[in-house]
Design a protein that fits this description.
It is built from 34 helices and six strands. By secondary structure, the chain is an all-alpha fold. Belongs to the TUBGCP family.
Amino acid sequence: MSEFKVHHHVSELLNLLGMRSADPVGAEVYTEMLLNNMKPYITTQVSAHQSKRKIAGSTQTPIEFLAKYDDLKAKNVRDLDPLVFLLSKLTEEEQTKEFIEKHAKDKAEVAGMTLVPHDRVTSQLPAPGTKLSVQELSEIRDKLLKEAKSAPATTSSEILTKALREKQLKRNVNIPHQPDWLFQRPSLTLDFIVGVDEPTDQNIVPLGSLPLALQEHSIIEDILCCMQGIEGKYILARALTERYAPKEFMIDQSLDPSLQELVRRQLPLCSNYSTVVRFIEEKSAFEYGLVNQALSAAMRTLIKDYMILVAQLEHQNRLGNLTLQKVWFYIQPTMRTLEILAAVANSVNRGECIGGVVLSLLHEKTSGLIGDSKGQELCLYLTQSACVPYFEILEKWIYKGIISDPYSEFLVEENETIQKEKLQEDYNDAYWEQHYTICRERIPVFLEQVADKILNTGKYLNVIRLCGRDIKCPIAEEIVYTLKDRRYTEQIEGAYNYASKVLLELLMEEKQLMARIRSMKHYFLLDKGDFIVQFMDMTEDEMKQDIDKIMPTRLETLLELALRTSTANVDPFKDDLRVELLPFDLITQLFKILTIDTKLEKDYRVDPTDLHLSGLESFSFDYVVKWPVSLVVNRKALTRYQMLFRHLFYCKHVERQLCSVWIGNKAAKMYSLHSARWYSAAFALRQRMLNFVQNFEYYMMFEVVEHNWHIFQTNMESVSNVDDVLNYHTDFLNNCLKDCMLTNPDLLKIVHKLMMVCVTFSNFIQRLSQSATIEMEEAPSRESSLQGLQARSRKDTSKQKASSKVVSEHVDLMGASENFERTIKNFDSNFSRLLLELLEKIMDFSCISGEFKLFNILYRLDFNGFYTEKLEAMSAEKAMLESSTHSSESSSGSWPTSFTSQRPDSARYVPGMHRPNVVNGSS
């Protein structure tokens, strides 16, 4: 985990605790402490026991803590021991303990509650019968009111926690209907029928009145009955106090003490038998899942062997060869077996375990009996039997990509509401991430290391199956649980490698994924220059209209014509390109995305009907992608492509506008020297604008897109699975968006303003050129008509001279006006101010973030140090303004109005200096 992520988590925790920024202990202290102590650690039983004792020794209620720990441990709560170890480390931090205690007191005071235990409050009350003053009575009332407020809060919190826990335990399973007679006939059980605390037969003679031999014979018969779940005459079963409580028995007290002691030693076997039989009959129901049913079946097999032992003992008893001592000798191995079975049953019952949790519990039980070979062999048999249905689901998933999990026990969960058809509809594509997900509570501990591979293996095969291809895994073998030899791990990895290879071949070779992505790059990232130029030439008139007046069918026709008449005609996927008119411009779209869940989000909630968009502002390409390529080129990726295209497309439009101005400015050659000098400032400004736009385009096309595309291609040559393909493709698009400044609102605003200044300037100059052209066309000819070719030539020359004279006079009239000069000066001032602001913010952003990719723009725009001098002059001017006593009066002069200002010799530009004034100046 990186330092920034640790710092983020620490800050979030401190915010939840209500820690103020003025407190002495801040996030940096804890972040440094965590980073210094970060190392791999595995919690063992010894360290967990030491941590438990340490916490019990530091708490005021050690008995309650130990009881709670044992209760959670019995329920097989995951990650309990690591949590206890973490808490034990917190008990050593006195500063942390003081802060948490102080925070709890402050929070209790704000809520009007107290942290004093109830018994301590009641002990401070006066003895009964004593007289109280008014002041003492009010103090007692305040204490009681605080306790009354705190008690319901605790109770409601516990109720809420319980309700949430119960809600998580609810599973969406389809349980078949069970017949009514199953519930109406409770005697259909191998367990004890709920008995009474006294004999039902009143004619039973007390054992104490019989001879010792008859006492032993009678009590052996009762023991054999109790071993089968049947009450005897002198041994009675008590009613259960709880659902999973152990069975208790009553013995005739008149029995000989020596025999009575032998009977007491053997009764735990009957109690464990009752526990196991109850578990088998309960967990065999549908709602407890296949794993519990398989475990119950394995226990039932062992109970059959146990019943054979009871039958053999009954046979020996009828032959008269059985005594209590022999019974005690014969049942020794069985007592240990039933003790383990009862312990497993109690653990599953207490934790309400289902599916993978049962397997985790059995695995831990098996590992814990490493010194008891017989017990470990028994637990291994139970674990292998319980794993059979779970591994059958696993085999079907990793070998065929199908989930057959009727009772929601498998670690992979399917969300049927998310379908692959939505890949081309939803922006936030969730099919690959959410259609199949891992449910962590269902992962057995012995499969935790390969859980991600299990998920991805089935996902890959599922995609292949949905494409209509047969799946025949060459290593499809039965998976069997083993304690030492983790052979099933190798089988899972082999299935994963096979699924990855097949799906990659399907996407790369049959579906031609790279060719499709390369085709998208041609159109969305302006890789086909002749196609883009031809398309923009054809659609220039359409793009100038409002979006409501544009006919999409006409744009589709022009797109088809541009594709067929350019080098894009050789592209086999050109027919998948479509035209789309979006109801918002690029800036609104980007700011809405960048400001999600922030205070600025409401500023960009614009009604589409309020936006008067032109075709140029709303135009974008769309692309038709079919399954399974839509896994990679999904709607989210297409939206990124569209944002990049709209940004590049608009920059290309601005460049074309400035080039049109350059073409129109060639008419100035016919003007007189007096007329052309008025246009010199406009010509220089146009050239600087064109230089900026062309260098900005070059940076995005060659230093961002091509560079990241080369990295993407290199990564794709060594890719091994589809998840890497998704990650590499997403990284390519994200890096392009970031390096093109589409993820930085501050830089994006300035770039947008610069483009708007260039477009406005182009429109202004073109309007002047059009007026001059109209004036030239309307100039009357004063020459008479002559005949002959020579006369016609002289006539054309005289007309041209007359027209030039009229245009020159018209241009002189416009150029001499103060409005023209002032307008050009304003354009120069705005462009210079915004460009310097952009350069400064790029330097500041690069220095703060440590990412120097954007420096390439500075190197291209400021190759001769021209803008550096202006930045230094601006920095020196701001320093002088801040040092002046009248800075408030002269703050409006933060930016130079043009590039004619001189730079002081002592000025040096420092990135980040005076940045607040720059922001204020831009606003």
